[in-house]
Amino acid sequence: MFGWEFPPHITGGLGTACQGIVRGLGQLEVNVIFVLPKLYGGEEYEGGTASMLAADCVKINRDTVKEYASAVLPSEYIKWVEVDSCLVPYQTEDEYYKSITSVPPAGCMRVEGGDVTYTFEGGYGSDLYSEVYRYGMVALQVAKDYDFDVIHCHDWLTYPAGIEAKRFSGKPLVVHVHATEYDRSGSENVNPRVYAIEKLGMDMADSIVCVSEWTKNILVKNYNQKAQKISVVHNGIDNVFVAKSKVPKVYPKLVTFLGRITHQKGPEYFIDAAAKVLKKDGNVHFVVAGSGDMLHTIIERVARLGLSSRFHFTGFLKGAVVEKLLRISDVYVMPSVSEPFGISALEAVGCNVPVVISRQSGVSEVVDNALKVDYWDTDAMANNIYSLLNYSGLKKSILKGSMEELKHLSWASACEKLKNLYSQLIVDTK
């Protein structure tokens, strides 16, 4: 399994999904060799800030899993392999260049797995795409040294690695689509180089897994993939916080947006809806939790609308801090323009918070008890927020139904589907 993000080093839902999948497969006694890039920089995590190796990351994560999910990560079924690389989630080409100039010079490329170290001549790739393909070349060595039945890749940065491993081993390839370039950049701004890598990975795959019917439709329409080749496996959630003690309210009414501050997540629509809510109820505060390329634009938008006293920008949050924020929130809003799934909406429900979600999302397929709007309809969004804040009967009804739905959305059920898919691929390729 090739990944590029894992808790506690996360920038979005992909790392959370990888954790749920790895743990779920281990509990089903599926042996997983998880390969991921080395983590550099001053990433924050509980207990401090450090430049950490993937092994350190996993060690901390195991402690977190025990407390967080009340289950021991079944490590006897999991091996961890680290690739000395600068790959970072959601990184632009400019950001990548800055990252390679801030890490120690590399005279070789190492892959570390247990007691094994692989060495490759050369330095870091001169651009993001070079690094993606160098990561793919390392997969050849990993494929030579490990015995496996199936190759599973998460999102486009790992597709070249999966392709190389398949070419060497002849084993079936699964590509797992958590998001596409159409989601990240919009149909008018698709990066052709990223799109080409995504499409090649899908074309080369023996099977494609995607996180929603919403994403499946994008793959069929924009990537020319056959529907019968695609399996929809919705994400899950393992942690529900509602049994915990109540958290004192910071404000009488608090509405939260949590996610990357980018076009895909629709923060501008959240701001416009908030302005309309405040015209009817001036006793509401709004939180924007996250970071991204639109952050300064959004802050300026709030200032121009004269809403600064009612808005709070927290920056990027994760782990226990996210839980605390959700537990003091009265309404969670996910106004995404194109959201393959939206794990944060499930986390909000788990924290006993009713949700207003975009119809343009995968999570809307599995949560019926939510107030759903088209992302561009800020009038409807504002009305839904206002209603949940002021009509207790509606709030209780929505919460009761969504909490019941949450019981059936687990990583265990998602991993059962993945295990069955693996078994069928193994049979088909013999």
Task: Describe what this molecule looks like in 3D.
This protein is α/β, with parallel strands linked by helices. It folds into two domains: 13-237 and 410-428, Glycogen Phosphorylase B (Rossmann fold, 3-Layer(aba) Sandwich); 254-406, Glycogen Phosphorylase B (Rossmann fold, 3-Layer(aba) Sandwich). The chain is built from 15 helices and 16 strands. It has helices at 13-27, 54-69, 93-100, 128-145, 159-169, 181-185, 192-204, 213-222, 267-280, 295-304, 320-327, 343-350, 378-390, 392-406, 411-428, and strands spanning 32-37, 44-45, 48-49, 78-83, 108-113, 116-121, 151-154, 173-177, 207-210, 230-232, 254-258, 285-289, 311-315, 331-334, 355-358, 371-373. Strands 13-12-11-14-15-16 form a six-stranded parallel sheet, with helices on both faces. The protein has a four-stranded mixed sheet with strand order 1-4-5-6, sandwiched between helices. Helix 5 packs parallel to helix 7 (192-204). The longest helix is centred in the N-terminal third of the chain and has 18 residues, at 128-145. It is globular, with a radius of gyration of 21 Å. The two termini are 20 Å apart. The model is unreliable at 40-72 and 99-126 (pLDDT under 50).
